[in-house]
UniProtKB/TrEMBL annotation:
InterPro entries: YycH, YycH/YycI_2
Name of protein: Regulatory protein YycH domain-containing protein
Gene3D superfamilies (alphabetical): YycH protein, domain 2
Annotated organism of origin: Paenibacillus cineris
Domain Regulatory protein YycH: 3-419
TM region(s), chain numbering: none
Length: 428
C-alpha cells in the first residue's frame, strides 16, 4: 500500500513539474510562445485605431465646371463632396480606350462643358482605385497611375464622357461605357451653383476663389504616445534595446538591427529596418496596402488620413499618408513635423517609418471662424510667388504648432501654394 502511495505521489510531482514548465515557456492566457520569429512584433492595444485601405483612398479636391467659364471647388468631408463622391463610387466604368492628351482642347471643355473633375495629387494606382470605384478590369489600363478623373457632358451629345488621366502626362483613357446619364452629371454640377465662385488659373492647374473663404481655427487638446509604447510596437524584444543620446538632443534606441530615433522637442519618430527581408515582387498598389497594414500594426491612425503620395524610386517605394482636420490637410513643416505618416518599402517590406507621437484627444476644443483672402488680394500675393517659381497648386490647409503650455495643438488656416520647384509656401 505504501509503495502504491509513493508511486501516486511521484506521478503527481512529475505532472506538477510539467505544468510549471509549460507556464514558464508559454505566455498565458493566449498560448503565444515566447520563442517568436524575428518578424513578429508585439501589438500594443492602447494606441491608435486600425483603418481600412478603402477609407484612405479619395480625391484631394473636386472641381465643378458649370459652363460659361464658371467653376467652384469642393474639398474632402464637405457635404456636396461626400454626396457626389459616394454616388460616383457606385457607378461603373468600362471598355477603356487610350488616347493622346494633346488631341483634345481641354481648356475649351473646362470652360464650356458641365463636368466634375476629381484630382488625386501625385496620382494613385488604378489597382487601388478599383477598390473604391466600379472600374472594370483592363490589363493595359490597370498598369497606370491616375492623377485626374474628369466626367463631363457636351451640348447636343447624349453621351457622358469619363476621362482618366495618366500621371505620365501624355495619355488619357476614356471609358467607352459609363453608368452615368447626362442628367446625372448635370444634377451633380448644379450643387455648385450657389457655392463660392472660383476662377481657373494657369490652364486649370489651380483655382482662386473670387471672394474670401471661411475656415475654422482650432485649439485641440492632445495626448502623446510614449517611447515605451513605440518600442513595444516596433521591436521584437524591447528589453534588449540600447539607448544612445545624440549631440542634437535626439534619442536613439536600437537592438543592433533596427533603430528608433525620437525627437522629443517635436514629438516625432523615425524608425529604420535596413535589414528588412525582401518579401518578393511588389507594385505601387501592393506597397500602399502593405504600408496600411504596417501602420495598423505599429501605432495605428491618430486622426483622419488620405493616401497622399505613392511612388517608386530606384529601389524602393515611398508612401505618404496626409492627415486632415475637417475638410483640409494639415501641413508638415520643417519647424514642426506633424500631419503625415511616411514609409519607405523595399520589395513590399517596410524599411523606414516616420510619424508624430501626438494624437488629438476627443472632447472640448476651442474654435473660432477666420477668413482667408480671395479675389484680387489673393491673386496679388500669388503673383509675387509666381515670379520665383511657377505655381502648380493652391489649396486651403492648416499650419500646426504646439500651444505655449505644450498640452494643445493650434491649427491655423492658411493658403498652401505648391510651386514647380517642389516648395510649399503659405499665405494667410
Amino acid at each position: 500500500m505504501k509503495e502504491k502511495m509513493k508511486s501516486i505521489l511521484l506521478a503527481l510531482l512529475v505532472a506538477g513539474s510539467l505544468v510549471q514548465s509549460y507556464y514558464l515557456i508559454y505566455r498565458l492566457p493566449g498560448g503565444d510562445s515566447i520563442a517568436k520569429t524575428e518578424n513578429n512584433y508585439i501589438k500594443t492595444d492602447n494606441m491608435g485605431p486600425e483603418e481600412s485601405a478603402e477609407n484612405l483612398i479619395y480625391p484631394d479636391k473636386m472641381q465643378i465646371h458649370m459652363g460659361e467659364g464658371k467653376h467652384t471647388v469642393f474639398y474632402p468631408n464637405s457635404t456636396f463632396y461626400n454626396l457626389i463622391y459616394s454616388r460616383l463610387k457606385g457607378r461603373s466604368f468600362e471598355s477603356f480606350q487610350r488616347r493622346p492628351v494633346e488631341n483634345t482642347d481641354w481648356s475649351k471643355i473646362r470652360n464650356e462643358d458641365p463636368g466634375i473633375e476629381l484630382t488625386f495629387g501625385s496620382g494613385i494606382p488604378v489597382s487601388l482605385l478599383q477598390r473604391v470605384m466600379q472600374i472594370a478590369p483592363d490589363s493595359l489600363f490597370e498598369a497606370e497611375r491616375i492623377d485626374r478623373i474628369w466626367i463631363y457632358t457636351s451640348p447636343n451629345d447624349s453621351k457622358t464622357h469619363a476621362m482618366f488621366f495618366s500621371t505620365e502626362g501624355d495619355i488619357v483613357y476614356e471609358a467607352g461605357k459609363v453608368d452615368l446619364t447626362v442628367q446625372d452629371v448635370q444634377q451633380h454640377v448644379d450643387f455648385g451653383k450657389e457655392w463660392t465662385a472660383y476662377s481657373s488659373e494657369a490652364g486649370g492647374k489651380y483655382y482662386v476663389p473670387q471672394s474670401s473663404i471661411q475656415m475654422v481655427e482650432a485649439e485641440i487638446n492632445i495626448g502623446v504616445y510614449t517611447v515605451e509604447q513605440m518600442q513595444q510596437s516596433l521591436f521584437f524584444d524591447p528589453g534588449i534595446t540600447r539607448y544612445i543620446q545624440e549631440k542634437d538632443g535626439s534619442e536613439i534606441y536600437t537592438d543592433s538591427k533596427r533603430s528608433l530615433q525620437v525627437r522629443q522637442e517635436q514629438k516625432w519618430i523615425s524608425y529604420t529596418d535596413p535589414a528588412a527581408p525582401p518579401a518578393g515582387e511588389s507594385s505601387d498598389g501592393k506597397d500602399a496596402l502593405a504600408a496600411v497594414d504596417f501602420v495598423n500594426e505599429h501605432g495605428g491612425w491618430n486622426g483622419t488620413y488620405r493616401l497622399g503620395q505613392s511612388g517608386t524610386g530606384e529601389d524602393r517605394s515611398q508612401i505618404v499618408f496626409q492627415q486632415y482636420y475637417g475638410a483640409y490637410p494639415i501641413l508638415d513643416t520643417l519647424n514642426f513635423h506633424y500631419g503625415t505618416i511616411r514609409l519607405n518599402l523595399q520589395q513590399g517590406t517596410v524599411s523606414a517609418y516616420e510619424r508624430s507621437l501626438i494624437y488629438m484627444k476627443s472632447g472640448e476644443q476651442h474654435k473660432t471662424m477666420v477668413k482667408l483672402p480671395g479675389g484680387a488680394e489673393l491673386k496679388e500675393k500669388l503673383g509675387r510667388i509666381n515670379k520665383d517659381s511657377a505655381i502648380e497648386d493652391l489649396y486651403p490647409a492648416y499650419l500646426p504648432e504646439l500651444t505655449k503650455t505644450g498640452t494643445g495643438l493650434k491649427l491655423t488656416p492658411v493658403w498652401a501654394v505648391k510651386q514647380a520647384s517642389g516648395a510649399v509656401t503659405v499665405i494667410r
